[in-house]
Each structure stands twice: as structure tokens, then as C-alpha cells.
Design brief:
Oligomer: homodimer
Largest sheet of chain A: 2 strands, antiparallel
Largest interface: A-B, 48 and 48 residues
Radius of gyration of chain A: 19 Å
Number of strands of chain A: 2
Number of helices of chain A: 15
Helix content of chain A: over 70%
Chain lengths: 323, 323
């Protein structure tokens, strides 16, 4: 029942995704068209412009559109307001993948079907390209968000990006992930004793925070109220957790060709994932719960009349995707 | 003549340095007092709170004081306004050292007389601690700069920090540094052919940009005019280049105990430094020129009556220090 609804779209969802992807990639190419030092920008472009779903950027855009309808903003205005933020999000995401793939971390050779950054440019350049992307993402957000946006709002969005990705957010989640790698048996024992927060803690930090920020920032830049931001954040938390559980499932069920990265690595590394802890069936069950919860947030009367179709489809896409 | 002037202080310079150091370290300890994930914050604290001259933070404070005198700000107000920025600068600086020391980069075992971060916490945590510090530094600057400062000013300071440290600044300089390591002979040949920009290019990026930002941001936060910012930036560029040349000299003349890091590494690695390219005498000559130029900027009539004593002493300290 859930999966079929993807084809019942009142609008053409795959066209919507494609339009968002093109908008974001076009602008990323512009921002990343610098030339000196040559090898650094090549390395940054290699990872940022290597495809990917652009799900986070599109979530930011869709959240903005949902809020903007009420304010009578044109489509063009909405894009102008949030596109720098969308690009910053994709740069930070690319940075996290570059550093994550390094030998000192997950030591991955392939990503999106291509050699990882350090395999092409060497470890030193990959490390510095990640650092550069983090700084450049913030710079773009701070300097390219249009002047019509109150500087206090831009400032709050930039500081929230840093918080969401920092030691209490994404980077903290990566540390938790590392800390529990190889301790799967212990986590299972703790789980039977009633301690079931570890897996959610890791997932929330590692992927959840940036996804939550993506939705939140789009709405915030378009002037969403505190209540709207709170509900949209709940929706985004459901989506973020679902996204990571789907990822964990794909590591078990996917193949190299579709995934573009090496499958089966989580199990081999004795990683704490939703699947290694709760099994495939438990993971699918949780996904259905998260889909229902996420959709219900968007059915809140607060959003009556708002175009939340795209956000609904994006939740289902995050769950039922094949890569 | 130059060196003696350090003792001719109209105010107690060593007490001034000590006060600045204590202010900055006290606040850094507060900002870094978080606990989860434990190992991440321990790793961040290990490098940020491991001593160091705090020269960059004190430059920010001193530039602020030079501008503030005219505006009748109290000492306490000035500190409140710039201290978050001072701490952000020190965090970004610490981050650059952590990543620079990694095996993929300079592969250093000691820094400030202590084991480097990855030697204590492992490469993965050192990498993530650097990323976390970069994000947390920006977050602190954006959220802790007092509300009395126009958000547009705070925003411009934060974006300039990202620019100064990013791919066209500090990180770009590290890439140039790597690119020319081992190519010392070629650089010397190019130099004889009239190509003398490489060494300055590397130095300007690697250390110059963050030092320039330190001075600029302190003045900007206190409302300096565009003309004042331009002259102070010139002073800071002289100081930044002098600081790195002094560093290159110390690599040749210093010892492990005083330096706290392994000396002689530049020559061994065939690195392009001021000393390996222009020799000791050429380096000392350039230092004297930079001292004169830097002091002359502060003698501009624009700063008549402004307390620029500390900035003058800081320039000489950067040149004549022993570690």
C-alpha cells in the first residue's frame, strides 16, 4: 500500500526531483568554478559534482516551497532565497563523505560507482578538500543568501548549520559510530536489558542532523513560524531516521552496481546498524512506522492548503529508493 | 636597535601578553567544557588548551582596543565584544595544526612539547576533532558575539573567517605548501629567472590569512572605518609574513626543547621556506624590512592618539620570539 502511493502522484515527482537536481547542480558548478590552487578545486569538484540524489538540497527547497505558497512568493524568488543554502548543504554532505571514506575512517575505495576522493587525489588533498568544503559552504551561505533576508535570520541559519554538523551533531554521530564499531554483541546484550537508545543516537547524529537542518533551514529562510518549524523538524527527524535505516537495509540487500559502493561492509565491520541490531524484518517494520508518523506531521491542520505533496513523496522516496 | 625596543615598553608588555592569554584560555575552557561524545571533546580540549602563545587571539584583542579607545568603550566591553571571535580564531588555528600533523600531511609526533593529537587519540578522532573545531568555532562566533553588534557586522566577520581559512586562504596555502615540497631546487632555479612569488604565495596563505583576519576582525567588530581596516590589514600582512619567516628561521636555529616540535624538518623534507630559498641572512634582512614597514603603518596619522603600542610590540614579538 505504502509503496504504490509513489505512483499516485498529483504532480510528476520524478520530474520534480530532476528539476531540483538540475537547479542545485547548476549552481554548485558555478560556485565551484574557481581555479587556484588547481588540484584543490579539482578535488572539491570531483566529490561535490559526482552525482548523488541531492535529497538534502531538494528537501530544503521543498520545505521552502511549502511555506512560501502562503506568502505569495514566486517560484523564482524561493529558489533565489534558498539555493545558496541548498548548495552549502550539499558541500557539507560531500565533505562528510570524503573524510568518512579516508583510510583512517571507513577506508572505502568506491563511492557512487567512482573511486573515492583520496584514491584519486591522495590522502592529503582529500583531507584538505574536506576542510575547504566545510569553510566554503559556510562562506557561500553567509555571503550568497540574498540581502532581502534579514541578516539575523541568515546568521541563525548559518549557526544552526554549524551546530547540526558539529561535535553535538553529524561529527559527534560519526564519533559514536566509530566508538560502537566492533561492539555489536555488547549493544545486543544491552538491548535485551532495555538499553535501546544507542542505535538511534548514532543514526540521529550521523545522518539525521543534516537532514533535519535541510528541512528546517528552507522553512526558516522563508519565514516559517516557530510552530511550523517544530512540526517540520519532527517530520524531518522521521525522514532522517528512515533514510539511514533504508541505507542499512541496502547494505544487506543491494549490489555494488546499484549502490555504487561496496555492499555488506557494515556486517563485515561488525557495525552497529538498524539491521545488524534489529534484523531486516524489524527494520522494515520501523520504516513503515516512520512513514506513517512523517506523513501525519504533514497532515497537521497547520499546513492545510500548503503544498506538502513534494515533502510527502520525498519521505517515501527516502524509504523505498534502491540506491 | 630593533630588538632593544622591546624592553623600552611604556607599558608592561609581558604582563599584557599574560593577561590576554589568561582571558582567552579561560573562555576557551568554558566553551570546550562539553562532555558528549566524551573522546571527541577530550581530543578537542587536548589541542586547543595545550598552551601556545595565543598570538592570533591577542592580535584580535589589541586591534579592537586600538579602535575602541576613540569610541569610549570600556575595557570590559571590548573584551565582551571580541572574546568569542578570539576563541574562534584559536580553535581554527588548533584545527589547522591537528590536521597538519596527521600522517597524511606532515606526520609530526610532537607539537608544543606534547604528543600530537593523533598520537594520543588515533587518526580517526584527530580528523574528526579538527572538523568539529572548525564548525564549533564558527558556531561560537555566530552565536556568542553580543547582540549589541549589528548582525550584518557579525555575519561579515564570520564569512571573512571562512574565506581567510578556506580554499583561497589557509587551506589553499597548505595545498601550495604540499605542492612545492620536494621541489626546492626548481623554485631556486625559477627564482634566479625572476620568478620570486612562490614563497610569498605559500606563506601568505598558510599563516598570513588567519593572522590578517585576527587583526581585521577585532577592528571590524569595534566599528573601524574602511580606511582603518585597510591600513591595519597592511600591518597584519607584514606581521603575518614576518611570523612565518621567523618560524622558518627557528626551524634552523631552534632546538626541540625550546620549540616543542622537531626542528630541522623543513630542510630534511626539502620544503620551500624563506630560509631554504633565501638563506638565513636573506631571511633576517627581510624581517627587518617587515618590522619597519609594519611599524610605519601604525604611525599613520589616522591612528594618532590611538593606543597602538601593543600592536607594535606584538609585531616585534612575532619577529624576535624564541619559540
Amino acid at each position: 500500500m505504502h509503496q504504490e502511493s509513489l505512483t499516485e502522484a498529483a504532480f510528476d515527482f520524478s520530474q520534480y526531483l530532476e528539476r531540483g537536481r538540475q537547479l542545485v547542480e547548476g549552481q554548485l558548478a558555478v560556485y565551484l568554478s574557481e581555479t587556484a590552487p588547481k588540484v584543490l578545486w579539482e578535488s572539491m569538484r570531483y566529490s561535490v559534482l559526482s552525482g548523488g540524489k541531492r535529497l538534502r538540497a531538494i528537501l530544503c527547497l521543498s520545505a521552502a516551497e511549502a511555506i512560501a505558497a502562503r506568502e505569495n512568493h514566486s517560484q523564482k524568488e524561493v529558489v533565489e532565497i534558498v539555493l545558496p543554502c541548498c548548495c552549502a548543504i550539499e558541500m557539507v554532505h560531500a565533505m562528510s563523505l570524503i573524510h568518512d571514506d579516508l583510510p583512517a575512517m571507513d577506508n572505502d575505495d568506491y563511492r557512487r560507482g567512482k573511486l573515492t576522493n583520496h584514491k584519486v587525489f591522495g590522502e592529503a588533498i582529500a583531507l584538505l578538500a574536506g576542510d575547504a568544503l566545510l569553510l566554503y559552504a559556510n562562506q557561500i551561505l553567509l555571503t550568497k543568501t540574498p540581502a532581502q533576508i534579514d541578516p539575523a535570520v541568515t546568521l541563525s541559519v548559518a549557526s544552526e548549520l554549524c551546530r547540526a554538523c558539529g561535535p553535538k551533531g553529524m561529527v559527534g554521530g560519526q564519533v559514536d559510530d566509530l566508538a560502537f564499531t566492533g561492539r555489536l554483541e555488547q549493544v545486543k546484550i544491552d538491548l535485551e536489558a532495555g538499553e535501546n537508545e544507542v542505535v538511534e543516537l548514532i543514526h540521529r547524529g550521523k545522518t539525521g542532523e543534516l537532514i533535519r537542518f535541510s528541512v528546517w533551514s528552507g522553512a526558516r529562510l522563508l519565514g516559517a513560524s516557530a510552530d511550523e518549524l517544530a512540526i517540520l523538524s519532527k517530520y524531518a527527524e522521521s525522514l532522517g531516521l528512515a533514510f539511514q535505516i533504508a541505507d542499512d537495509l541496502l547494505d544487506v540487500t543491494g549490489d555494488m552496481k546499484t549502490l555504487g559502493k561496496t555492499p555488506g561492509k557494515d556486517l563485515a565491520a561488525n557495525k552497529v546498524t538498524w539491521v545488524t541490531v534489529y534484523g531486516e524484518e524489524g527494520s522494515r517494520k520501523r520504516l513503515r512506522e516512520l512513514e506513517d508518523a512523517g506523513l501525519a506531521y504533514l497532515d497537521n491542520s497547520m499546513f492545510a492548503g500548503a503544498p506538502t505533496n513534494a515533502l510527502k513523496k520525498l519521505l517515501q522516496y527516502a524509504i523505498y529508493r534502491s540506491n
